[in-house]
Amino acid sequence: MSRYLGPRLKKVRRLGTLPGLTSKEPESESEIKKQLRSGKKLQYRIRLEEKQKLRFHYGLTERQLFRYVHIAGKGKGDKAQVLLQLLEMRLDNILFRLGMASTIPAARQLVNHRHILVNGRIVDIPSYRCKSRDIITTKDNQRSKRLIQNSIASYDRNKLPKHLNIESLPLQYKGLVNQTIDRKWVGLKINEFFVVEYYSRQT
User: Quick one: pLDDT at residue 65?
Assistant: First the structure.
């Protein structure tokens, strides 16, 4: 299944707030809450919707998300928490969380067009897995820097999670990954255990 390219607000109205998918908000928040509360949901539907939240927020295909669940199952510790850590440490998500891009799709475009450096080297793979002590900057040209300036200027620094840091240097912005993310800093309301359960029932 390909990556979703359709109307983004349509998904927000059905699943709830998805900050990684779009910075826009629907006209009526009460309408969303009403839709989310309406009716007694089947257990399968609940798990499906949690899985869809994760998929659309991080901009993944079905195959990509399934692969992340598979990798998380091989890791140490809680499978659901490892899954969120894998997704949060993707380069496109790190750029979004640093405020260098307004959404994850916008961050993915920055990476694909080779504007982003990790530890001084160009990385053009949005799914690149960042590690503790990684340094993220833009290429040393005006076009690359201009692409992130508006997003940085409008970003609320209070939303910056504790595992990340951003420095405004002369003519440059530098993002730092301090450590692997903790569950409480994940900026998405989701029950990741339902996602793991959903895929466990598919195999």
Answer: 94
Alpha helices in the chain (DSSP H): 8-15, 29-37, 43-58, 62-74, 79-88, 91-98, 104-112, 142-154, 192-200
Closest to 100 measured CA to CA, from 177, 30, 188: 177
**Could you report the per-residue pLDDT of 53-109, keeping only the tens digit for each?**
999 999 999 999 999 999 998 877 889 989 999 999 999 999 999 999 999 999 999
pLDDT tens figures, 140-174: 888 888 888 878 888 877 788 888 998 877 667 88
Domain 8-84+186-200 has CATH 1.10.1050.10: yes
Identify the three-state secondary structure at position 176: strand
**Going by C-beta distance under 8 Å and a sequence separation of 6 or more, which residues neighbour residue 95?**
101, 107, 110, 111, 116, 136, 175
Tell me which CATH code domain 90-177 carries: 3.10.290.10
Pairwise CA distance, residues 202 & 118, whole Å: 36
Which sequence spans correspond to the domains of the chain? 8-84+186-200, 90-177
Spatial distance between the Cα atoms of 56 and 51, rounded to a whole number of angstroms: 9
Contact 162, 72 (CB under 8 A): no
Task: Tell me the whole-structure pTM to 2 decimals.
Answer: 0.79
User: Which phi-psi region, left, alpha or beta, contains residue 171 (left: φ > 0; alpha: ψ -120 to 50)?
Assistant: left
- For 138, counting Cβ atoms within 10 Å of its Cβ (0-12 exposed, 13-18 middle, 19+ buried), the class is buried
With CA atoms as reference, report the closest residue to 101 among 22, 197, 186. Answer: 22
